[in-house]
């Protein structure tokens, strides 16, 4: 199975595409640019959803559901947002099919069933949601309004890649309304923190928190807070964004509230989202030439147990022992699978779980039964150890934590090694060519950013929240700059 | 708030529409026929999802996700299924908008961005899924394939009603593949049982299990297993269906497997689904002229506590006591809300929670603090009781169970009283006019079914699984019949 996986050094992009399919995460569908998320991939998404949803609720948000379609007249109301998405909108124009008179057994669009107004399949839901909020918000008592939605959205991308960029993807989008500017900014920043904590603690994927430059900002936002991760091939991945939308949508949809003082004021807004793209980030942070590597906190199967046996008698004896261990582990909320299929040999099973990134593999044979031992192998380091059965439970619990930490630390080190401070444009070009984050001074203009992109394909990933105030000069123009920003080529 | 709810006897349909909006469950959106599910309504759906998802996984199913769009050529492959849904399909024909040259600031569909092949927004996913399964199934080892998807679907209905019939709705759709006919039928029946158990144990909504007649069967199915509930206005609601699809989709998409004996065989299929329509059924099973009534197992808030106080000092003393109770209840997994808003008076709060169907309301005032008591009111019977604080925990736990049971029993009794056995057509018409289920003999022909529908608007809801074999004659034609079927007017 995993044997024929392309090596990362040979062709990273090919390695990624093969891995996604071979590890049973997702595949391309019959619909251009749309993917099928297979059960194993979807189980990872469910784990992500559960944890994010918990965090959203903990911070006071409620879930709701808004329509898939946005009437064109609403879609275009906030002009910048509409302009940003217009070129990638799937549009519903008809509501009926009919038998094709020229083609027996085939259907065609019924020309009589043309919609009076076209419907855009949501690429994001600000428009339909703010049109709804108009009816929900009258007074300061109705604020803040803290709502999240789990949904599918469609953006007609020309070049697509499984998880990273697909025409349809799954995501969550938070849409909040506030009485004051400050409160909205605080909310947007809070959600950036929630995302960063999730990325680091659950995905074991270190991220840089920062704000986007003008040209990389969300269409319709005043400020975009982002978390940026560094992939193994030296390219950056925007992993989640949280937008302070100012009063743009409130003005476009005329959403005002009566303040405590009895004045009519426009409402302040945020929106924030992460998507199935995170699974792409997860893969490209940890996986290796043998396949997927999953952090225990997001692994659908944390421990797999493979019996090594010559006959049914041995299998029965092993199974008896294994069933005890399985019960104990489940009681500790460890998700464990006992793979007793007799249609595959142990070697094939080992390869399969390696490919699928199961963090811990236990092998147990007749000899182990005699000795009261187990062989425990970690997916992250391939280290194997023989352990007393009586110690297994605490050993496994510790090991899961250790693997989670090790993956995070490895990724932090990788990022450290691949972040370069540069002070002139020659160095800059060299560093970008090598890959990784490049920390450099920039004069703050869109023009310079554009020219740098043109010369090097690198963009400003963010102006880090923790950037130090220092005197410097722009790597390209030599104009004065007060802080370094982070450049990289990006997904 | 609840004061102005129309009475059920005056106009049931108006009562329903008002209730859905006033209890904050859902509302109509700017998109024809599409609803916004508000946080309180969505919280009920989340509780339904959690329990159903648990049951699906318990019975061996995994979740996955398939594309929103179905290319027309795939959609039309299974002809009966396509024919059944063609008239209500939203169709995507273009993938880009552009600035409208004749209308500054407006957008129009870019005529250059016409799709070569139109995409149908899924009304159901058999076609796209079976086209995918073709790649997943080669041998008997790949079977059974037991997959479920939580998704939105679109059916362009002309007359829509919140939850009951909307152009877009949320649902789950299971799609399974099996090696043998028997196994597929067993699966379809199992899921009917899963749905029935959920309806009765969680929704407290009794259902009749049965099979559909030819004319009411799912387009493309060989057999449709259904659960049918009776609403308070005497109309039936189809609450969930499970279909045995034979080899129809396997043939349409050429999905074959190699059997143990090395032969190529078409795969057998089932599909099954329940949707946000269940929330409509929940409302029309239990609610009353004061508003929503929720069974405790699906209530987002099971217990609400309202403080009765004259000044801050009293509120503080009450809050201290309440916080203890809240902690105790949460430890027992009871979801409880302490409503200490000072912007509303107790009377307004009482009305609000009555309208929203919170099963148990606790009021606590200064006098209660002195006496060590609480006033506990049940939503289902409006009964109030003063309880010692020390007994509160076990009293509430019991009461939640009692309310759950009481609601179920009431609904069973209502159905019993509104199910009529009739043996001639005059009685039949009278019984249908009165409302409820009518149990009658039928000659088994579609023609008779059509004529009965024409005369009375009643349809065959199902041929009950537990129908007794008995000699009888069809109420309309007098032709021989071997079992009674269930007629009703239906949603």
Using a beta-carbon cutoff below 8 angstroms, give the protein chain pair with the largest interface and the number of residues from each chain: A-B, 66 and 65 residues
Shape descriptor of chain A:
globular
CATH architecture of the largest domain in chain A: 2-Layer Sandwich
Assign a percent range to the helix content of chain A: 25-40%
Strand content of chain A: 25-35%
- Structural classification of chain A: alpha+beta
Total beta strands of chain A: 27
CATH topology of the largest domain in chain A: BirA Bifunctional Protein, domain 2
What is the mean pLDDT of chain A? 97
DSSP helix count of chain A? 14
User: What's the main sheet of chain A like?
Assistant: 11 strands, mixed
Describe this structure in words.
- Two copies of one chain form a homodimer.
- Chain A is an alpha+beta fold and 491 residues long.
- Chain A has three domains: 2-286, BirA Bifunctional Protein, domain 2 (2-Layer Sandwich); 303-399, Anticodon-binding domain (Rossmann fold, 3-Layer(aba) Sandwich), CATH 3.40.50.800; 419-488, C-terminal domain of ProRS (Translation Initiation Factor IF3, 2-Layer Sandwich).
- Helix content of chain A is 35%, strand content 28%.
- Chain A contains 14 helices and 27 strands.
- In chain A, the strands form seven sheets. An eleven-stranded mixed sheet of chain A has the order 3-9-10-16-13-12-11-24-27-23-22, sandwiched between helices.
- In chain A, a hairpin with a 5-residue loop joins strand 20 (373-378) and strand 21.
- The longest helix of chain A has 26 residues, at 392-417.
- The radius of gyration of chain A is 26 Å and the shape is globular.
- The two termini of chain A are 28 Å apart.
- In chain A, 49% of the residues are buried.
- The mean pLDDT of chain A is 97.
- Strand 5 of chain A pairs antiparallel with strand 5 (91-94) of chain B, so a sheet runs across the interface.
């Amino acid at each position: 199975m995993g044997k024929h996986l392309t090596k990362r050094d040979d062709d990273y992009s090919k390695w990624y595409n093969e891995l996604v399919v071979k590890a049973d995460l997702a595949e391309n569908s019959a619909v251009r640019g749309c993917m099928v998320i297979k059960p194993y991939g979807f189980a990872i998404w469910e784990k992500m959803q559960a944890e994010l949803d918990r965090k959203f609720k903990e911070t006071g948000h409620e879930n709701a559901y808004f329509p898939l379609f946005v009437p064109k007249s609403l879609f275009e109301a906030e002009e910048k947002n509409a302009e940003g998405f217009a070129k990638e909108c799937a549009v519903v124009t008809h509501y009926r099919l009919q038998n094709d008179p020229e083609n027996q057994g085939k259907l065609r669009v019924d020309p009589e069933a043309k919609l009076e107004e076209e419907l855009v399949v949501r690429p994001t839901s600000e428009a339909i949601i703010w049109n709804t909020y108009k009816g929900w918000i009258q007074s300061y008592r109705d604020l803040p309004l803290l709502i999240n939605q789990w949904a599918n959205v469609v953006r007609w991308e020309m070049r697509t890649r499984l998880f990273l960029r697909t025409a349809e993807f799954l995501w969550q989008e938070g849409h909040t309304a506030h009485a004051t500017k400050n409160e909205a900014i605080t909310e947007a920043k809070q959600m950036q923190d929630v995302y960063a904590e999730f990325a680091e603690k659950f995905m074991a994927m270190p991220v840089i928190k920062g704000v986007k430059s003008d040209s990389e900002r969300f269409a319709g936002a005043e400020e975009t807070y982002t978390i940026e991760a560094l992939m193994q091939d030296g390219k950056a991945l925007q992993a989640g964004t949280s937008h302070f939308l100012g009063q743009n949508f409130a003005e476009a949809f005329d959403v005002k509230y009566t303040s405590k003082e009895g004045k009519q004021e426009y409402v302040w807004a945020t929106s924030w989202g992460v998507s199935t793209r995170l699974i792409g980030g997860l893969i490209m942070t940890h996986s290796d030439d043998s396949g997927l590597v999953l952090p225990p906190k997001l692994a659908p199967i944390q421990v797999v147990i493979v019996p090594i046996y010559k006959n049914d008698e041995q299998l029965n004896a092993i199974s008896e022992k294994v069933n005890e261990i399985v019960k104990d582990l489940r009681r500790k909320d460890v998700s464990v699978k006992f793979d007793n299929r007799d249609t595959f040999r142990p070697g094939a099973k080992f390869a399969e779980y390696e490919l699928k990134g199961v963090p811990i593999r236990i092998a147990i044979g007749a000899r182990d039964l005699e000795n009261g031992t187990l062989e425990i192998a970690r997916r992250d380091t391939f280290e194997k150890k023989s352990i007393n059965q009586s110690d297994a439970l605490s050993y496994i619990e510790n090991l899961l934590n250790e693997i989670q930490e090790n993956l995070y630390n490895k990724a932090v080190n990788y990022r450290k090694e691949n972040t370069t401070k540069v002070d002139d444009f020659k160095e800059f070009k060299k560093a970008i060519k090598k890959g990784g984050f490049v920390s450099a001074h920039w004069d703050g203009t869109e023009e310079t950013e554009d020219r740098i992109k043109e010369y090097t394909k690198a963009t400003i990933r963010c102006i880090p929240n923790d950037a130090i105030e220092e005197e410097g000069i722009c790597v390209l123009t030599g104009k004065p700059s007060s802080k370094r920003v982070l450049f990289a080529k990006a997904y």
